[in-house]
Amino acid sequence: GADNDLYINQAVVFIEDAIKYRSINHRVDSKSLWLYRWYYSRICQWILGLTITVILTLAFIETPSSLTVTSDIRYRLPAWDPPCGLTESIELLCFLVFMIDVSVKSYLIGWEEFRKTKWLMAYILTLIVSLADWIVSLSFFCTENVRIRRILRPFFLLQNSSMMKKTLKSINSTLPEMASVVLLLAVHLSLFTMFAMLLFARTKDGQQDKEWVGYFRNLPDSLTSLLVLLTTANNPDVMIPAYSKNRAYSVFFILFTVLGNLFLMNLLTAIIYNQFRGYLLKSVQSSLFRRRLGIRAAFEVLSPLKETPANAQELYVSVGDLFHVLQKVEMDSRCKQAIMRSLKTCSCDQLSAAQFQKLFEELDKDAIKQHPASPEYQSRFMRKMQFAFGHPYFGYLGNVVALANIVSICVVLVMDADKQPSERDDFFLGAINCFFILYYLLEMLLKILAMGLKRYLSYPSNRFDGLLTGILLVLEIATFAAYGFPHPGWRPELMGLLSLWDMVRLVNMLIVFRFLRIIPNMKFMALVVTTLLDLVKNLRAFAGILVVVFYAFAITGIILFKGAVVPMGNIRQNYLGWILSRFAACVGWVGVTVEQISQKRLWLYTVCVMYLLSFNLICRWAKIYFVAWWLISSVIWVNLFVALLLENFIHKWDRRCHREPLSDIEYQRTVELMFRDVLEEPTEEELMERLHQHPHLHLCR
Q1: 34, 63, 430, 432: which one has the fewest Cβ atoms less than 10 Å from its Cβ?
Q2: Residue 50 covered by a domain
Q3: Rounded to 5 degrees, what are φ and ψ at 642?
Q4: How many angstroms separate the Cα of 315 from the Cα of each of 304, 354, 512, 687, 700?
């Protein structure tokens, strides 16, 4: 009896591992199985996720903090400075949770597996360094300038996600090919830098040396000017002095831009896409193997419970034992019910390995819910109304009315663009908003009448439409209650939290947002939008690594540039000082600056001009930080993002364009198995070989 219970519990855990695509290489004795299920329970994983969130957000309240209304150092009030020991106490609690986490993980996989797991070793090392740095902080009463543990915090987020670790591994395998193109870019930049220094050398006539003075005075300045030109951030400023002197100089800049931007940068994108395009396929293939291995492991541990002849060539699992296992497994209720229905309709009382595996293919499907039926009216008049207001043309009429609403708002905004607030008459805008909102309410009620409330709410577009209509109606009623009905000269003073103009603007913004309801009625636009929304699920791991990189660079910026900039009297200096002061404020505003640089809106040159105005000696060292960020974010990361985006988009576009029309109930593959049609099923030999390599599970055959 004890052995049977152990086999049942092992099968339960293996099936749950298969559902979550987890590795089955863990201890399988009774106590370890209980601890394993407790560790992966919702409450434990929620606590771990909350702990990671808390330790990452500590940077927003630690010194230096940016929890102020404005980021401008000239106007903001002093930020709250937490007392020494407050954030450190929260950190200690987080470290205790992480120590429990790594201890449980290490115990569950065993010593042999632990030695092979580099992530767990790095986890322990990160905790040791963080705790040592925490002790140093308390020893100095929180007055130390550099806190190493703050840079290490993103690691806790990284190691907790298997998909993020797979993504990082794929990126690491792509780096050698990227390095060759980056080296080619460096050669291109160096050659043109030498050409520029020779072409724009200093002459006897100082009035003609504007290009040399501004951009090509020495090797570092020349290299910086062309590097910024490679990002197009200083185009055409960098060439204006030379172009003013002689139009022929434009040939140099054109050649540099064409070779660098049009050829080399796009070549880098092509190489990265070629190397990285198999990332999802490999990842999903690995996930499929884990799922099949977990299901096969459950079959192997259940098969001894079924009495079979000694000379039997094939093992079987009892249907009753599987029922017992399924009652204990935590899984989606739809999948569990579908598997149980299949078992009940099965004519046999035992399952072979192939039948057992096929039964759990239900996990690879995601059911689209069937829309409820429309109400059936007895009255002929009501049936006609149902036909009229349930027809697609009624929805098209609503789209035309929404378009007319947008056009009327645009006309009013154009007419009132140059008027002072005291000269503006809100009567016309208030009247048309009232009319259109009443139409939206009537349209919603008529659709509910034709379709029924349950069927109406079963469509996401209707829920979106109904929610905005409800909000618009509430705002309109609040406006009338506070300011009365629209009339000529309708310009009451501020009453309550919002003025009339603020209320009208809020209503108009929601009306514009409501116009997105047309998307489901436009086939190809709906296809693009739904594809992009589905991509979000695939890009979560990639976005997580991007957050890790942003966070690490932002913290590094705080450490490097803290207190380097103070408000200056000159307006130009104030603006430039404000840009870099974000690095001295806190990680939030550092992240904003870093993000703007990655989008090429602010760049190294502006920041270094500020340094030249205040700290001449460290400008060159500041360039290293920003160049490193540009290489990682704009050159490497953006191209990796484009590669992943293209792979997802092309695949989903092809599948959707060739997909058959939806029936009332259709099964679609989950996101993890979106490549199901091109994946290879693992063979019997591969599964059994991997099971025999399990460090804690010893099979009889």
Answers
A1: 34
A2: yes
A3: -65, -40
A4: 8, 11, 64, 15, 11
